[in-house]
Amino acid sequence: MAVESEAPLPGEDAARLAAWIATYAPLPGVPDELIGPDGPRAHWSRLLDTLAGLGRRGVENRFAAAARRIDDMGFTYRVHGEARERPWPLSRLPLLLTESEWQEIAAGVAQRAELLDGVLRDVYGEGRLVAEGALPPAVVAGSPEFIRPMCGVKAVGGRWLRFYAVDIGRGPDGKWWVLGDRAQAPSGAGYAVENRLVLARAFPSLFRDMKVRRLAGFFRDFRASLVAAATRSDPRICLMTPGPWSETYTEQVYLARYLGFMLVEGEDLVARDGKLHVRTVAGLKRADVVYRRVDADWLDPLEANAASHLGAPGFFEAIRQGSVALANMPGAGLVESRALMSFLPTLAQRLLGENLRLPNVATWWCGQEAERAQVLRDFDNRAIAGAFGDRAEGLDGARAAIGAELEPAQRARLIRAIETRGMDYVGQEVVQLSTTPAWRDGALTPRPFTLRIFAAATRDGWTIMPGGFCRVSDRRDARAISMGAGAQSADVWVIGETERESAATLLPANNDTPVVRVPGNLPSRAADNLFWMGRYLERAEATLRVVRCLCNRMTETQGAALQGRQPVERCERLLLAWGAAPPEGTEAGAVIALNAASNPDLYGSARAIATQAKRAGYIVRERLSQDMWQLLMRLEARLEQASGAAPLEPEILEMSERALYTLAALSGLMDENFNRATGWSFIDLGKRVERAINTCRFVRQFADDDPTLETLDALLELVDTQISYRARYLAGPALAPVLDMALLDPFNPRSVAFQVRRIDEHLAVLPTLLDDGMMEPQRRLAVSLRADLEAADARRVDGRRVLLIEQRLMALANAISERYFSHASDPAPADRRSKLA
What we know:
Residues 522-821 form the DUF403 domain. By secondary structure, this protein is of the alpha+beta class. β8, α9 and β9 (262-264) form a beta-alpha-beta unit.
């Protein structure tokens, strides 16, 4: 690796490393990943020696580059209860594990996954564990994650668990201990890949030289296992998300894109005749496998939570019919309960004939009299937590409480609750976690951490991800680490002993994958959002063009004889009608332009519309390239910069033009880089519909009501045809030629006729519901409007005719919504501009 600034002299390696760790002081009596009994561990020394060679300035530069990459790639997360997303908090140093230590962890995780899968098969099947007294009935029936409709159901392929995660930590004895199981809908695997992408880019040579094992092989095996679980040879695999408000939505989007799965929400799914289907623009299409990130209680409002809008009615019946495979089955969350942890050592002996390779944190379930008495006797030295979740009476909203740290009143209340209803509580040993190096304020400092390991069920058994999702606390006390409590996430490097893993990719091992050119079926919800993203982007452009036109003409002399007919006044009226200017007050000129460009509180401002475009794009983010997403964020940022600025025409004009350049770049990416599949058709349909409607409104505003040369010239500017007009007509703007170029010219990419032709071409190739050769309503409207525009004469076009064309375009937009976006009760977002007279 090339050394940047502050490079040391040859022969100073040991002294350089010693200087770096001179102030690093592990916590007393707590194991540390960097410093062992004999000093710095060898695998850490290699990493830190390389960093020390860069010098502090060089290291900070690399870390700053990593932070920029996180922003550029849009890696974010959301804390529960917050509307705004936060940038992903990546720790600058990875957690290092040797190959030998990793093998021990992987063996323990595989054993535990097999054990829990066996427990679930029995609990929802024969029920021998409860019947024979190995498991108390209350541990099963008392859990809110016990899904009664799944009793007696046989999971497709026999697996209740297909994707499992376990949180582990290194205890004071130096051994790894299980802190918790994750089987409901484990999160973090996508973030682990994102962490790897960022850190491997920041230190490519170091990553390669240390033979870090790669993650792609794990995901390749997981994907292959889901394909094998389906009952059809060419299955449709869906990743089911709770939606954009999920705390880990960006991770779900990334996984869907990375694995090639269809991202769906509950409203995308329909259960018919015992099978699960996806609503697509081509009708209902079979869903064979669902990798769910929605909790089981929300999957089916008919048989689970009736208030759920995240699932699909009839989902459970499709599962019972064996027509859909799941990762994981509803009810798998049962094994996450802390109450079950106290029974796992004996269950391992009973079901596997083995001791647990990875032991639990010592746990006592207070639903048993002897265990409850033991917890109460040693109350001050126990961590008290809910037996079946993170909330329990007496904990005052905390996930756990240590007896010795409670106030007297809370202590008495909690003891009374345990005595009254002990089955709701567990007592656990208080474990002091080991520490790992973290970069804080330009220096290394020890911080506690937990490690989440992921396992996937395959034909050959359990495959373990060679790495994981590490959370590093920002505090020395890390008994409850979560991403919402000041923690950071660290990449996990398993240091391989050979080069065997260096070539691992997500590509299949063989070369017999058939070549396919037929585009996949697009979910109706995705089509809806792509359509409206196209409309919003075109709407923002139209608003900015009016703002630019207004700024360009503010210096024109306003003649009293032309009151109400000047371009400036017409621009202001248009922005007011579009909701881009405050309706009250006497603001004019620069104030209106500034509001129209950047006021987020005005629904018609360019900034508010850009935010809507970003929200629509966020929902279908798995279908957008990274470049497109960055430009969407940049568009919003450019318009945010204008907020609070003094209303000076040059600054507003420059800001509007920069935003228009960003929109032009977005349009170029969509035209040149967006695969010509169904998704592109809908984003272009939205763009064409909105452009045609806005052009009609420009014409009615600037070419009607006794237009002047100045208003006709403004119209040519707004539809971006000034150069073409001047090349075609030597005289100045005249009404009929201007109307022809704006409305009817089939060679002008800004004319209404051009947009309608493109709309008709898109509708002609989109799927039809019935193969009867008959035109569907939306196509019939497009063909009729196209024919009328092609036959029209600009000399006979007046304001009434233009209004009729606009109304027909809006009817066409509604017909497209009703045909393709039928998943929603309201076919499309309300178009508040329809009020324009």
